[in-house]
Amino acid sequence: MPRRICREPLTARVSIERRRVCQWLLLPAVPWWIQAVDATTIASARLWPAQEYTRLILESSSAVAHQMLPMKNPERLVLDLEDVELTSEIAQLGQRLQPSDPYIQAIRVARFKPGVVRVVLELKTEVNPQLFALQPVADYGHRVVLDLYPLTPPDPMMALLDFEKGGTRDIDVDSPPPDRFGPVERGSSPNSPLISPKSKPGLKRPIIVAVDPGHGGEDPGAVGPRGTCEKHVTLAIAKKLVAMLGAQPGMRTMLTRDDDYFVPLNVRVQKARRVQADLFISIHADAFTTPAARGSSVFALSEHGATSAAARWLAQRENEADLIGGVNLDSKEPFLARTLLDLSQTAQINDSLRVGRSVLDGIGAVNSLHKGSVEQAGFAVLKAPDIPSILVESAFISNPDEELKLKSDRYQKQFAESIFGGVKRYFAQNPPLSRSKLS
Ligand SMILES: [Zn+2]
User: Fold this and answer.
1) Which residue has the higher pLDDT, 383 or 167?
2) How far, in Å, from the CA of 109 to the mean position of ligand 1?
3) Mean per-residue pLDDT for 410-439?
4) Which of 160-169, 194-203, 334-343 ranks highest by mean pLDDT?
5) What is the H or E stretch that residue 79 is in?
6) Which sign, positive or negative, has the C-alpha torsion 217, 223, 228, 233?
């Protein structure tokens, strides 16, 4: 199986540092004939810095015994790797550190004693470290993963607090829906409060749309024939969509990730639930084994099997993201609780089909449709029990023509606009205040 590597950055905006990571990924593993017989070689050392958490990955062809030691004054983490060769890939890890990394100040690597390589992370702040190992999966070998989380995780609700002041979300459920899509008020900007202070009390609640750029970080998603990564395309489209939605009076948005790092599928769901989103849109790019497959599609959750074999196959592939991106199964994070996902989701699915239809109609104006109806399958990321949720496959990245489209700023914008139009039409006909919610 070919390794899933982004061969080229999507746009010039991708940082030099990130490009260097991609080049590092392209380097072949150290050939077997220069590996010591009983020592393991770190074939690839990667950093995924992000405000949410910074991830260090050490990948090797066989499992590496490791242990971590937190140290104080100054704050640092010591990671000892046993029976590991001190090769340039691991020795030069510090050079790949970005000055903007929120958590790591510097990285030093040295042989601590015979057979033990010591990695010292000098920290900018105290962190909550999580160390775990991943078994080989897809194109990856054994991975040692060290995640550095902030002691106090940022609350996605904070960004929306301004709009919650002075009223609760579900008051005045009998009042008529506000005209949320009227002209922008004089003097308002995309950053100004979306509900003016003159609004009636019952109209204070903005519509909140969670936009989910598929994949990220360790999980590139599908890779096109030219090496375009799905994760870059999804983020670009999502950011454009969020800009459009956020500029609407009465609308607020939340991105489940805003950079190139991995977010587990159910964390994406939980983030949307934290902000009590009225809609969840997951953005992806499709791929198939033959280059001819083309067109856009929209999916909703299914509780009872998929609407087609292709939909089932796609859901399976998208659900593999957690394996490839790397989830710490031992984590006790509340985000990872899955209990709510067993509730009946009939109402959610009906709403999702409705918004899916509306979005599909919009998309039909900018690209051919792979299928003329909203399909259904067991996508893990669509399982919020109380939020209408759709997954949009923007085009086939495995199709050379559509890969070019997906890379283009113009198509990304058109595509985001088509979703935007569908969302507006849906909320105009289905105002959230009148929708029943699971409690
Ligand atoms: Zn995907």
Assistant:
1) 383
2) 35
3) 84
4) 334-343
5) strand 76-82
6) negative
391 alpha carbon – ligand 1 mean position (Å): 9
CA of 266 to the centre of ligand 1 (A): 15
List the structure tokens of 257.
């990730």
Residue 321 CA, ligand 1 centroid: distance in Å: 8
Closest C-alpha among 154, 167, 257 to residue 204: 167
Instruction: Determine the distance separating the centroid of ligand 1 and the alpha carbon of 180, expressed in angstroms.
Output: 31
- CA 174–ligand 1 middle distance (angstroms): 39
Per-residue confidence (pLDDT) for residue 389, from 0 to 100? 97
Distance 281 CA to ligand 1 centre (A): 13
Task: Tell which phi-psi region holds residue 305, choosing left (phi > 0), alpha (psi between -120 and 50) or beta.
Answer: left
Overall average pLDDT of the 349-358 stretch: 97
Using DSSP bridges, classify how beta strands 116-123 and 127-134 pair: parallel, antiparallel or unpaired. unpaired
In the three-class reduction of DSSP (H, G, I as helix; E, B as strand; rest coil), residue 139 is classed as coil
Residue 237 alpha carbon to ligand 1 centre in Å: 13
Q: What is the pLDDT of residues 1-11, one digit of tens each?
A: 345 566 544 33
Structure tokens at 273: 């639930």
Nearest to 131 by CA among 148, 112, 151: 148
- Residue 286 CA to ligand 1 center (angstroms) comes to 6
Domains of the chain and any CATH numbers: 16-150 (2.60.40.3500), 156-434 (3.40.630.40)
> Average pLDDT, stretch 296-313?
94
Residue type, 323: L
* Ligand 1 center from residue 336 Cα (angstroms): 21
Tens-place pLDDT, residues 181-198: 332 222 233 333 333 333
> What is the 214 CA–ligand 1 centroid distance (Å)?
5
**How far, in Å, from the CA of 215 to the mean position of ligand 1?**
6
Locate 241 and state its tokens: 């969509």
Span from the CA of 278 to the centroid of ligand 1 (angstroms):
22
Distance between first and last Cα of the chain: 45
Q: If we measure between CA atoms, which residue out of 142, 88, 146, 100 comes closest to residue 121?
A: 146
Give the predicted TM-score (pTM) of the model: 0.82
Gap between the Cα atoms of 103 and 93, Å rounded: 15
Name the one residue in this structure whose structure tokens are 């609640």.
Answer: 205
Q: If you measure from the C-alpha of residue 326 to the centroid of ligand 1, how many angstroms do you get, rounded to a whole number?
A: 15
